[in-house]
Amino acid sequence: MRFLETFFNGQVILNYLPDLVHAMGVTLGLAAATIVTGILCGAALACLRVAGLKVVNFFIIVFADIMRALPPLVLIMILFFGMSSLGLNLSGWTVIYIVLSLVLAAFSEEIFWGGLTSIPAGQWEAGRATGLSRAQTLFHITFPQAARRGIPPLVNRVLATTKLTALGSVIGVKEILSVSSSAQSFSGSATPLTMAAIAYLIIFIPAVILSHWIERRYHFAT
Amino acid sequence: MTKPRTMLEIAGLEKSFGEVQVLKSIDLKVQEGELVFVIGPSGSGKSTMLRCCNRLEEPTSGSIFIDGQRITDIPHRDLDRMRLKVGMVFQGFNLYPQMSVLKNVMLAQVKALKRSKAEAEARALEMLDQVGLKHKAGAMPAELSGGQQQRVAIARALALDPQVMLFDEPTSALDPELVGSVLKVMKGLREKGMTMLVVSHEMQFAREAADRVVFMDQGYVAEQGTPEEIFGAPKSERLKTFLSRVSHGDVEAEAD
Ligand SMILES: Nc1ncnc2c1ncn2[C@@H]1O[C@H](COP(=O)(O)OP(=O)(O)O)[C@@H](O)[C@H]1O
Ligand SMILES: [Mg+2]
Question: Residue B168 Cα, ligand 2 centroid: separation in angstroms?
Fold first, then answer.
């Protein structure tokens, strides 16, 4: 009984459910914005890297290495507290969105680039030999193949990055973890944390199922 | 009688990769409607010569003309348009694995030739019919045999109405029982008057279908003539040795 009372207190659930549902919306919105921005930027950087401009590629590689090496929390703190000392006040939501998008962009750039370098030269040659430009060959022939090869690692990375939205709790973003942990300190009950775990499962289990479907859908024999 | 038109002319072509000179002054002419066969040991520069003809490789010096137009000095921005006139078929087929057979044959028609989708599809089906694979239009490349894939690759090149077709060992990657279907398509093309430059070791096919045979060795055109001359009365020792090795079925052992 102590167990149920601690983790599944009915009154606490009723009190905090509306806030938590709202927080789920914030987490979902943040995750969706991050995924779209991160993957598009990563794809754009990988394609830009194909052009083979030395200086540009140097900066892409440095960017990707730094973003993958630094703990995201460090970037979040720098952007949130550092920028406001400079007089530029970014909201917590914006900071999380920017940092997680950059991190996802760095990882997906490396995934797409790895895919592109694994495409046989014959695919490029077939495109060019039929009069397609380099950009057309990239866009219609080689990049789609690279993207498909990258789907499994990309899906993992997307799930890992979206879970980091919980870092928003450190800088006051009203997402699932921060709402439930403040509810926990107000109510003195662990129940809001149970609710948070369930909320994450409600979001991520369908995401995992969707990711399996995507992996199957875009799998083809080469 | 009208003077035959020279569709492809290679003059003084040289190509080096770094220090290594792979082509050392190649001269070759292919008339309209001619099928010219190129044979020679592995590493003699056959692929490199072919790839210079659509500038997949940049020649080091010399000139190449397609239907009278010098293609060796056209600027890079005009390369794509030039390549539409030169069809190329690769040893490894190089079909796009993520697209259906029909889309493979349509892509460059729509994106490079700027044909409408409907026109490109009609043309693609016509070309697939010509290579005997209209019924496979909806299949994915991985579902086809090697011979079928190579015929789709031929249809993909033909759909752009090229003036010259280049074949780089089109049957070398195929199981022996599939070679015939590809050669049959090539023979059909020849009957339709297509100009073709073919690197291949299908000697029997060369005897039946080639107008001329060119023997390349160590970056030179070492000998050329009609199939009767080349196979019946080879002059150089190198060609004699090469022919005897090929007839024993070990071309690749010739690599040295
Ligand atoms: N991109 C390249 N870089 C360096 N060397 C090359 C390249 N392509 C071909 N070669 C060399 O050029 C020579 C001729 O090759 P190739 O034209 O493929 O001969 P073939 O088709 O007659 O077998 C070989 O020695 C090969 O190693
Ligand atoms: Mg070769």
Answer: 7
Pick the CATH number of A2-221 from 3.50.50.60, 1.10.1840.10, 2.70.150.10, 1.10.3720.10: 1.10.3720.10
Beta-carbon contacts below 8 Å between A and B: 69
Q: Could you write out the DSSP letters of every residue in A48-112?
A: HHHT--HHHHHHHHHHHHHHHHS-HHHHHHIIIIIHHHTT----HHHHHHHHHHHHHHHHHHHHH
Of B147, B125, B122, nearest in space to B135 by CA? B125
What is the C-alpha to C-alpha distance for residues A168 and B143, in angstroms, rounded to an integer? Answer: 49
Q: What angle do CA A173, A178, A180 make, to 5 degrees?
A: 140
Sign of the torsion angle spanned by Cα atoms B187, B145, B45, A123:
positive
| Alpha carbons B47 and B29: distance in angstroms, whole number | 17
* Distance in Å, alpha carbon of A133 to nearest chain B alpha carbon: 6
pTM of the model: 0.90
Q: Which of B191, B192, B152, B165 is nearest to B36 (CA)?
A: B165
Choose among A128, A140, A220: nearest Cβ to B111: A140
The domain ranges of chain A are 2-221
Quick one: which H or E segment has residue B24? strand B20-31
pLDDT digits (tens, 9 = 90+) for A75-115: 999 999 988 888 888 899 999 999 999 999 999 999 999 99
Residue A128 and residue B56: Cβ atoms within 8 Å?
A: yes
ipTM, two decimals, is 0.92
* Encoded tokens for B38: 């190129």
What stretches of B67-168 adopt beta strand conformation (E)? 69-70, 86-89, 164-168
* Positions in chain B short of pLDDT 50: 253-256
Percent of chain A with pLDDT over 90: 76
B201 close to A (CB below 8 A): no
Tokens 């086809």, located at residue: B144
**Tokens linked to B166:** 């280049």
- Please, are residues A3 and A148 in contact by the beta-carbon 8 Å criterion? no
Q: What amino acid is encoded at B160 in this protein?
A: L
pLDDT digit string (tens) for A2-54? 888 888 888 888 888 999 999 999 999 999 999 999 999 999 999 999 999 99
